[in-house]
Design a protein that fits this description.
This protein has helices spanning 3-6, 48-51, 57-64, 75-81, 93-99, 120-132, 146-158, 168-173, 175-183, 197-205, 213-225, 239-258, 274-288, 306-309, 352-359, 370-384, 390-409, 427-435, 445-452, and strands at 11-12, 22-24, 70-72, 89-91, 104-109, 137-142, 161-167, 187-191, 230-232, 265-269, 295-301, 311-316, 325-330, 364-368, 414-419. The protein is α/β, with parallel strands linked by helices. A seven-stranded mixed sheet has the order 1-4-5-15-10-11-14, sandwiched between helices.
Length: 464
């Protein structure tokens, strides 16, 4: 270990006055922008007025903003952030020693709040804009429960009503996550439910279904658009959410720059794309401006492989087909993934920003089975003292694999990955892994083809 390396602490903390005061909008530096959201009825780009029926006005403006590289973070949001931010960038010295790798491994830990994940970064922003607009409440979906928990906390802080539709399999697997949401005042309904018309339709079409994020989104949107004083908020996928999550990457870059550390590889788990997009945004911006070059790796589950096996086309973001069309890597909105434990990665599509960066070659992608992901999670937990969420563990597995490649080649690469949250509500999954009863479920080509066949068909949107 060199003298310079010895100066790098186990945890790099920023002071509060070093926190970002602006979000970074990576679209401003993209020469080829992500494709616009389309009205499914007219196939024309969604207008601010149309989006305003579903989303808060200020969030609509952020969703449509492709020109401003930086957008101010209101003081009220920054005051809330100070309760748990800045989050630490950790040098994984113990993991490096265990792997006997020359690689240097860092992880940005986003689990230092009650929601246990990065989701609070966007939840508090969206709740703030809803309160500012004078709304009574918001509706949303949640998979593993981190987003629902974060939103319930944010709504409690601003005195807003919060209605959460939770994917049924997660509702049953993670009852304590549900109780945290209720503790913060949210109502929680397993999805698909019989409370909405779209829920009834999905239950009739897929009897006994364990649900999906696409189903839960449809129900939440239906309730929001049919209830006075409510709007719908989304925890991932949308460009506005990646904008809020850019605080992750901005803090990471500030911390690395403090010690003149330049990453070679940046890794994030990928479901809808919020944490990955947030982590990589400032680094991708450097690549887009020709200032630097990095390897960026998106890691997804083999049970829901939108980047590695999906198609880049316009598709509905929800199973009930009530949302706008987004151009993204998708498995088809009718794809119902297996009830694997990484509930936050159980979404059929991918952020338009992440999709476009992937299509342009700025990002590479890989997929893992959940048993190998949990093996990596346990190895990490035993070294680094944090029990990681199943979602985050996909990034851990990717980082370990890259570090082991460095062991083979002798290269001293610097690896940074996002540790998006903790796994203390995922002990049923860890129990199954430890008992040897955990299985892997990978969709067949026929399964994916059948779902993609239902993607909206119009000129230029063929899936074949």
């Amino acid at each position: 270990m060199t003298d310079k390396e010895k100066k790098i602490p186990y945890k790099i903390y920023l002071s509060e006055n070093e926190m970002p005061t602006q979000y970074y909008n990576v679209r401003a530096d993209m020469k080829k922008k992500p494709a616009p959201l389309l009205n499914p009825g007219t196939l024309k780009p969604m207008t601010a007025e149309e989006l305003g029926h579903v989303f808060c006005d200020e969030l609509v403006q952020q969703e449509l903003n492709e020109t401003d590289p930086y957008i101010d973070i209101p003081e009220e949001i920054r005051n809330f952030y100070r309760m748990y931010r800045p989050s630490p960038l950790v040098r994984a010295y113990c993991l490096e020693e265990k792997l006997q790798t020359p690689a240097k491994i860092y992880y940005k830990f986003e689990g230092n709040n009650t929601s246990g994940s990065h989701k609070l970064n966007s939840a508090i922003a969206q709740a703030y804009y809803a309160k500012k607009q004078g709304l009574k409440g918001v509706t949303t979906e949640t998979g593993a429960g981190q987003w629902g928990t974060a939103l319930s906390m944010a709504c409690s802080y601003f005195g807003l009503d919060c209605k959460v539709f939770m994917v049924k399999v997660s509702y049953e697997q993670k009852p304590f996550r549900r109780e945290v949401m209720r503790t913060y005042g949210a109502s929680v309904t397993p999805s698909p439910s019989m409370e909405t018309e779209v829920g009834k339709k999905i239950n009739a079409e897929f009897p006994g279904t364990t649900g999906s994020l696409g189903c839960a989104i449809s129900e939440a949107v239906e309730v929001a658009t049919s209830t006075e004083g409510y709007r719908y908020v989304l925890g991932s996928v949308l460009s506005q959410v990646l904008l809020h999550q850019s605080v992750i990457g901005l803090e990471t870059k500030i911390a690395l720059d403090k010690y003149d550390v330049r990453p070679d590889i940046i890794i994030g788990c990928a479901g809808g794309g919020s944490n990955l997009g947030g982590l990589i945004s400032p680094f991708a911006g450097e690549m887009l401006r020709g200032e630097a070059d990095y390897r960026i790796i998106a890691v997804e589950p083999k049970s829901c492989p939108s980047l590695t096996r999906g198609k880049y086309v316009y598709d509905f973001c929800d199973t009930g087909e009530v949302c706008p069309l987004a151009k993204m890597y998708t498995l088809g909105s009718q794809f119902i993934p297996s009830p694997n434990h990484a509930g936050g990665l159980r979404f059929h599509g991918m952020s338009s920003i992440v999709s476009e960066l992937y299509d342009q070659g700025y990002i590479e992608a890989r997929a893992y089975e959940q048993t190998e992901v949990f093996a990596a999670a346990e190895e990490f937990a035993r070294c680094e003292g944090i029990l990681p969420a199943p979602e985050s563990s996909h990034a851990i597995k990717g980082a370990i694999d890259e570090a082991l490649k460095c062991k083979e080649t002798g290269e001293e690469k610097t690896i940074v990955f996002g540790l998006t949250g903790t796994g203390y509500f995922d002990l049923t999954a860890y129990q199954q892994f430890n008992d040897g009863t955990m299985t892997d479920s990978i969709p067949t080509d026929e399964d994916i083809a059948a779902s993609l066949a239902k993607v909206p068909q119009f000129p230029g949107n063929e899936t074949k």
